[in-house]
Amino acid sequence: MKKNRYLLCLLLCGFMLYFAVPRLSLHAEGIEGTFSIVWLAFALIVMAGNLTGILYSPKKTVQKIQSQKLKKKSRSFH
After folding, report:
1. How far apart are CA 43 and CA 76, in angstroms?
2. Of 34, 46, 55, 74, which sits 20 to 30 A from 7 (CA to CA)?
3. What are phi and psi of 9, to 5 degrees?
4. Are the beta carbons of 19 and 8 closer than 8 angstroms?
């Protein structure tokens, strides 16, 4: 379920970048150039975070195995 959310956010961020990059002026002076650079930096951070979430999310089988190990340990202490 989380992978779907990460993928949706990644696609939305790509969509925003697709429309924003041609309109942003990186070579402008003053606050316009600063805004463009900061906006692109934040967009790249969002893309990197979502890619990390997709690529490094634990597999369901690993979660099941870990939960079974925890159940066995808790039963052995009783």
Report:
1. 49
2. 34
3. -65, -40
4. no
CB–CB of 13/46 below 8 Å?
yes
Q: Are 24 and 39 in contact (CB under 8 A)?
A: yes
Q: Residue 36: enclosing H or E segment and its boundaries?
A: helix 31-55
Q: Where are the domains of the chain?
A: 2-76
Buried b (16+ CB within 10 A) or exposed e, 46-69: beeebeebbeeeeeeeeeeeeeee
Q: What is the pLDDT of residues 29-63, one digit of tens each?
A: 999 999 999 999 999 999 999 999 988 877 766 66
Backbone angles phi, psi at 27, to 5 degrees: -95, 5
Do 39 and 21 meet the contact criterion of CB atoms below 8 Å apart? Answer: no
Report the alpha-carbon angle 50-36-40, nearest 5: 15
pTM of this structure: 0.67
